[in-house]
TrEMBL record:
Protein family: Belongs to the class-II pyridoxal-phosphate-dependent aminotransferase family. BioF subfamily.
Molecular function via GO: pyridoxal phosphate binding; transferase activity
Lineage: Bacteria, Pseudomonadati, Myxococcota, Polyangia, Nannocystales
Cofactor(s) required for function per UniProt: pyridoxal 5'-phosphate
Protein name: 8-amino-7-oxononanoate synthase
Amino acid sequence: MERLDDEAQRSLTRRCPPIRGREGLAYALDGREVVSYCSNDYLGLSQMPIEAADATGSGASRLVCGDLEVHRRVEARFAEWLGHEDAVLFPSGFQANASVLPCLLSKDDRVHSDRLNHASLIDGMRLSAAPRSLLEHLQPPKLGSREAAPRDWWVCESVFSMDGDGPSLGDLEGHLAGGGCLYLDEAHGLGLFAGGRGRGALLRARPTITVAPLGKAFGCAGAFVAGSKVACAWIRSHARGFVFSTGVSPMLAAAIEVQLERVRGPEGEALRGQLWRKVDRFRTRLGASHGQAFPALRSPIHPIVVGSNARALAISARLLDAGWHVQAIRPPTVPEGSARLRVTICAGHSLEQVDAFADDLLRCLEDA
């Protein structure tokens, strides 16, 4: 209880606000009608209707009860789409990272981690036996001699969830070309770049491991871990989050299969076009017109860093009064002193909503 009181004094109390009557990006929040600018549903696929599957559960771990046809089929289709030999389906991106990294990394490896990596990546590396070095944000690792360590792993996100930036393609390619291994989390790149395949698909060589969480642009849940047949066979036998977890529901696996066809097809291409038009409109409104700086990487994530926790909460509250839902992001999600509004633009926003929100955001920033 004392720790909760301490967090309250530092403006760090969190809650899950109840929402009602969701239609697209609009819903009722604490009795107010609002439009969301904090969702990761970038393409608006999370509310697309899907015919229900004929089963809801897998019964046990897939190593105990076996694979259902839909498990094998969707893993094969996803691997082929990403250009990998094989893929393994997990219940969530967090479970995938926390399970696969300790499974793949040994004490003889070296692992280089971006300082701003997601908590699931950090936890996975901590659970591994590999020595870990922290990299300054977006800094590529320096490869050591093959005699000192057989494998140098660079673990990073293709698009960073709280900053909307990402490593340069040149740095990623240079690491692979130099003999390094790349573990690339595509949580916020999948569905958006390279026909939906993520930023890793823009590289001349595939990442060693691609993690593809499905709760953002895919509008679903679960995550694929894609790589070589040997790597995926090892993961199926040794990743504790796969071995000791009930297999992904066939209902979810079937939904993922439908979303894959949407994302990779004409519907996905049209939605990406809509998304980038809204992103460009927002950036122009705040950047070119009012000097707000954004990451060089064009992504739907726009961090408005305000510094103090109290100021971030105050701006979030004022935006809520104006009909916009934008959460204040505070430590430990972001470093101390970098509390922010994390604004996400989605295909489902209208251009009029983008303009009105941008104007209200600027007013709230000036007033707070």
